User: Fold this.
Amino acid sequence: MTQTLMPPRRIAVMAHPNIPEALDVAEDVAVFLNHKGVESRSGSLYEDGFRQAIQDRSYDLLIALGGDGTMLRAGHLCAPVDIPLLGINIGHFGFLVELKREDWQKVLPKLLTGDFRYEERMMIQARCEREGKEDAVFDVINDVVVARGQYVRPIQVQAILNGIPIASYVADGLIASTATGSTAYALAAGGPILPPEIRNILLMPVAPHLSVDRAVVLSEGALVCIRVQTDHEAVVSVDGQEPVHLSSGDCVHVSAHEKSLQMVRFQGPYYFYRNLTAYMEHNPLISIKTNEQTDYAS
Assistant:
């Protein structure tokens, strides 16, 4: 690394309770850090008192153990209070996770000497307007998805940019994604892979029918209204969370968030592309293992 940063001195280690062995590994990490002179505590990602301590900024860093889903949940917890996030992979996919389970003991000492860097991930904000009134505001790390509900029929969706209609879709849905989310649902829908550090909003239709089928990349300052026109159920879901029902004429307003998710990286700036090749060629979700090794010294 070209710059030595101030090492964290109070570290929360949080694990997804439904992932086998995650809590045990979290305890091992906390014990390791305490032996190194760092105040550390381990526990469940859903433990109310522990979550409150994060919101009260009682820690300098949050280490999350799990997969990308765990990282999203942890990111929603620490981003609003500007606490950096580091991930140790105990789950399946690991686009967001920095360390492999077998590597943390040899790499974490770098954290304690300031030999790491911060990577800023742009977030977006989604404001849900139903029946002409704003009734929900969401912080978004990956994506906002406006889509059909339980009926297997497309919906009509209009994208309005800074007050000007730019595209209409007849599709299963429309994704508004960050660069972080470009490797999630948007990628599965055929969208482009965006470098994680860029600050753009990606619009990607899902299964469009005789309508615009291309991705659109918007600037950070874009204000997008996604308006639904449908005679059957439509929903909006943020980062894979519980969907919210939408009626015809309802809108979801999407814009860049004032906050960013700050992630700890030990790897060099081009780690993303090396890891991407491994993930694309060897998907762990279909039980194909890879022998690719990560270079934390680059």
